[in-house]
Amino acid sequence: MTAVGWLESLSPWPEDGFGLERMRALLAALGDPQLAFPSVHVVGTNGKSTTTRTIEETLSREGIAAAAYTSPHVTGWAERIRVAGAEVDVERALARVRPQAEALGATQFEALTAAALAEFADAGVEVAAVEAGLGGRHDATNVLRSPVQVLTNVALEHTEVLGSTREAIAAEKLAVVQRGATVVLGEAEWEPLARRNGAARVVVETGGNRALAGTAVAAVLGRPVEPADVQLPGRMDRRDDEIWDGAHTPEAVRYLAPSLPTLGSIVASVLADKDVDGLLVELGRLAPSLVATRSSNPRALPAAALAERARLHVTHVEVLDDPHEALRRAHELGEPVLVTGSLYLLADLWPSTVRA
């Protein structure tokens, strides 16, 4: 079995509950690579990957040997781990940690995170930008030597794990704050919490992902910088008569809306643990038709269930379980088509468009 095949065979969720004990044991078995370099730890609900990649690119432009770890991916697993501006050999990276990960029964995310951190240490990275997966407190990334943390924003997500209010979710995310660190916030309301958690300095930056990244890099380097411009797959990604964006919260759709043309239709899949109805309210304002489908992620809401809820907010709703068929039908209903609701849907459709 290839290393990627092995990774895909692992459970994405811990069967014995969330915690850092196994992750710390795995990294110890690998020589604690996460301690070989400082990291900027990025948490939040929306914009984490873009902020992380912008931090990486900005550091690189400033002459720093930088790396980035993001999730989830659209184009493939290698998209998640970057060193010196390029994706790593993911088979090699996974092979480096596979024996230890297998011995400890690591989850998919733990194994991949360990592989990324080991790659960074081996490459002599000077600063890494690392995106948290779920939450922060018990996330596998909460093992870093991190002088700077970034909280992009907070919205309702993973409520069964993180809590049912924005305040509870923020508490889980800002549990990554390290005593004496600088915390960069995209929302000012969380400043008291960041300080209570040990931040020595808090900077509020409400100018969006690019500005957040620039402020974070300035905190690392101790001087102002001009943040880079980056374009990630599946983030306002225009492809002929399609617009791909993995917006998965109402806030993300509202942020996206002013940049969109007049839409003909939408194809969407949404994970069941998101604010599904809130998301559909916002999507219903963007187009007269929606085709509900289901991504391959096991947490995705069944297409029929999504359609039933969408009919309360969208004029015309159809159901097609297969994402490719759903995309073709959406083009028949009206163009341009917005493909949205989950990055996992975009990954299922990559690299094809309806014409491919």
Provide a brief overview of the structure:
The chain has 356 residues and is of the alpha/beta class.
What order do the helices and strands come in, and which of them pair?
Elements: H1 3-9, H2 21-29, E1 39-43, H3 48-61, E2 66-69, E3 81-83, E4 86-87, H4 90-104, H5 108-123, E5 127-131, E6 148-151, H6 159-162, H7 166-173, E7 182-185, H8 191-196, E8 201-204, H9 209-221, E9 237-239, E10 242-244, H10 250-256, E11 265-268, H11 276-284, E12 289-292, H12 303-310, E13 316-319, H13 323-333, E14 337-340, H14 343-349
Helix pairs in contact: 2-4, 2-5, 3-9, 4-5, 10-11
Q: Would you give an account of this structure?
A:
- This protein has helices spanning 3-9, 21-29, 48-61, 90-104, 108-123, 159-162, 166-173, 191-196, 209-221, 250-256, 276-284, 303-310, 323-333, 343-349; strands spanning 39-43, 66-69, 81-83, 86-87, 127-131, 148-151, 182-185, 201-204, 237-239, 242-244, 265-268, 289-292, 316-319, 337-340.
- The chain has 356 residues and is of the alpha/beta class.
- It has two domains: 3-221, Mur-like, catalytic domain (UDP-N-acetylmuramoyl-L-alanine:D-glutamate ligase, 3-Layer(aba) Sandwich), CATH 3.40.1190; 237-349, Alpha-Beta Complex (Protein-Tyrosine Phosphatase, Chain A), CATH 3.90.190.20.
- Strands 4-3-2-5-1-6-7-8 form an eight-stranded mixed beta sheet, sandwiched between helices. The chain has a six-stranded mixed beta sheet with strand order 9-10-14-11-12-13.
- A hairpin with a 2-residue loop joins strand 3 (81-83) and strand 4.
- Helix 2 packs across helix 4 (90-104), helix 2 (21-29) packs parallel to helix 5 and helix 4 (90-104) packs across helix 5 (108-123).
- The relative contact order is 0.13.
- The mean pLDDT is 94.
